[in-house]
Write a structure and sequence with these properties.
The structure holds two protein chains of two kinds. Chain A folds into two domains: about 1-50; about 50-275, Orthogonal Bundle (Cytochrome Bc1 Complex, Chain D, domain 2). Chain A is built from eleven helices and eight strands. Chain A has helices at about 1-25, 30-45, 50-65, 105-115, 120-125, 140-150, 165-175, 185-190, 210-215, 230-240, 255-265, and strands at about 95, 100-105, 195-200, 200-205, 220-225, 230, 245-250, 275. In chain A, strand 5 (about 220-225) and strand 6 (about 230) form a beta hairpin. By secondary structure, chain B is mostly helical. Chain B folds into two domains: about 1-35; about 40-205, Orthogonal Bundle (Cytochrome Bc1 Complex, Chain D, domain 2). In chain B, helix 5 packs across helix 9 (about 185-195). Chain B starts with a helix and ends in an 8-residue tail after the last helix. The chains are: A mainly alpha, B mainly alpha. Chains A and B meet through helix 7, helix 8, strand 3, helix 10 and strand 7 of A and helix 1, helix 2, strand 1, helix 3 and helix 6 of B. Strand 7 of chain A pairs antiparallel with strand 1 (about 40) of chain B.
Chain lengths: ~280, ~200
């Protein structure tokens, strides 16, 4: 516990230094290669410390604390590997859960446990699932950060055994290609095809194993530009905002299907989250 | 006995799995699922999930080769949708065009009716050499006018059409229909035209 806190403190200090250096040292209209090298350097410097470690700590506290109308902890929560097993669980989600006969991702399952075990009101806790820029993580975000940390280094193995797991993958693939809205965008508009970039941001080709692994294993992540921890549900929600779609509902079937599609494609990648991103 | 039961259960599960794998998900099922998974917010209403014929076809063939007849019919429909400027004037102010090319604002659920939409050209294209933060989803447009021999009538009509409804020339490409979908006004389109074609524009330097 202590080492985690100390490291997180050092991470915050290092981050401030990096941001300062970037602001001052930004090159003028230098050559493209210089820009790329600068970005690489920036990314490397970011790896020195991750403020998400503080969120993981808070999540661990929330997991163990007796809370809610039922005054219970989440220690009996079944994330798919049996009640109370957190280690390695995230790497195998989304999956089918017999108790609800549905496929759930990590965040949806955590909410399910908060409702079933602690007696929280689902509508109430999912009303604001994501924190604002620079704000403290929500309980769902903190709990997710803790759960994913417990899978660090574990290979992704999202199951495809139950018919509903297979169906979720198939629908996810269809949704990935679903074009709509005033800009006619789908996920594939940006995430299918090699070497695509928006401005200077590289776009992972999510239909391919390697890039899908890199994406799946590094969410949730601490987003430096937003000063906040962001989860996979948020990643889906914010992509659809940029696609000019209406607002994606937290824990919706489409979100779980897409995460299943990504997770299955990412099979074998080693979890490395919470990560830190620009 | 227990093993036999177990085997039976596994076989049933596998059969169900195979049945599922063999049966493609219907379009109607996907549309219903999308509608159940989103909610209206601000200017982003639920009708945005209703697919036009173009969106439906381009979703079906996404990542695959578009059949010739589908391509031809989508391109014809897109060509017919183009409305050329009534006054016959195509070129506005390239300086305004550069601002439009830089702006990625507009039509998101956190925008309002009053938000002036940009074209966000740099998100996907290289244009002026001075802007090094450009994307690569679309081709480089640096020297666009210069390489085409300037603003001839043919180039003007082609470029306007490409901005208005890009599917007229390449069905199911990923560029928004800036004119046909009402993203940019005629005046804004003319400014972007000037950015691409004016000899003074940094795009042609």
């Amino acid at each position: 516990m202590k080492t985690r806190t100390a490291r997180a403190g050092a991470a915050m200090a290092a981050l401030g230094a990096v941001l300062g250096a970037i602001a001052i040292g930004a090159p003028p209209a230098a050559a493209q290669e210089d820009t790329k090298a600068e970005i690489e350097r920036y990314r490397e410097m970011l790896q020195d410390g991750n403020p998400a470690e503080l969120t993981v700590l808070r999540g661990e506290g929330l997991w163990k604390e007796k809370r809610g109308p039922k005054n219970a902890s989440l220690e009996e929560c079944d994330l798919g590997k049996g009640p109370g097993v957190v280690q390695g669980a995230y790497a195998e989600l989304p999956r089918h859960f017999a108790d609800v006969d549905a496929v759930m991702d990590a965040e949806t399952r955590i909410v399910h446990c908060m409702v079933a075990l602690q007696g929280f009101d689902k509508a109430e806790i999912t009303k604001r699932p994501f924190s604002g820029t620079g704000q403290r993580a929500t309980d769902i975000e903190a709990l997710t950060a803790f759960v994913v940390e417990e899978s660090r280094g574990v290979p992704v193995n999202v199951p495809q055994q139950h018919p509903k797991e297979i169906a979720a993958y198939q629908r996810g693939e269809r949704i990935f290609h679903y074009r709509g809205g005033p800009y006619d965008f789908s996920c594939a508009s940006c995430h299918e095809g090699e070497n695509k970039r928006i401005r200077l941001q590289d776009l992972p080709e999510l239909t391919k194993s390697g890039p899908a692994q890199l994406a799946f294993t590094t969410w949730p992540a601490y987003r430096v530009s937003q000063g906040a921890l962001r989860t996979m549900q948020w990643r889906m929600y914010d992509c659809f905002r940029q696609q000019r779609f209406p607002e994606m509902v937290f824990g919706s079937e489409a979100s779980i299907d897409l995460i299943t599609y990504l997770g299955v494609t990412a099979k074998g990648g080693k979890m490395d989250s919470p990560a830190i991103k620009r | 006995m227990r093993n036999a039961v177990k085997f039976g259960a596994v076989a049933a599960l596998m059969l169900a799995g195979f049945a599922n794998a063999a049966e493609p998900v219907s379009d109607a099922e996907i549309v219903a699922l999308m509608k159940a998974s989103f909610k209206e917010r601000g200017i982003a209403k639920m009708d945005r999930l209703e697919q036009s014929d173009l969106q439906k076809q381009c979703s079906t063939w996404s990542g695959k080769e578009l059949p010739q007849e589908v391509k031809a019919s989508l391109e014809k429909a897109a060509m017919d949708s183009i409305v050329y400027p009534a006054d016959g004037k195509y070129l506005g102010d390239w300086k305004e065009g550069e601002k439009i090319a830089q702006s990625g604002r507009g039509l998101q659920f956190n925008d309002t009716e009053k938000t002036v939409a940009g074209g966000n050209c740099y998100a996907c294209h290289e244009l002026s050499k001075a802007e090094i933060a450009f994307g690569t989803i679309g081709p480089s447009l640096h020297n666009y006018g210069k390489l085409r021999g300037g603003a001839t009538e043919q180039v003007l009509r082609y470029t306007w059409g490409r901005l208005w409804n890009s599917h007229a020339y390449a069905a199911c490409n990923h560029m928004p229909r800036f004119g046909a979908a009402g993203i940019l006004t005629d005046e804004q389109l003319k400014d972007v035209m000037a950015l691409l074609l004016d000899p003074e524009s940094p795009v042609n330097q």
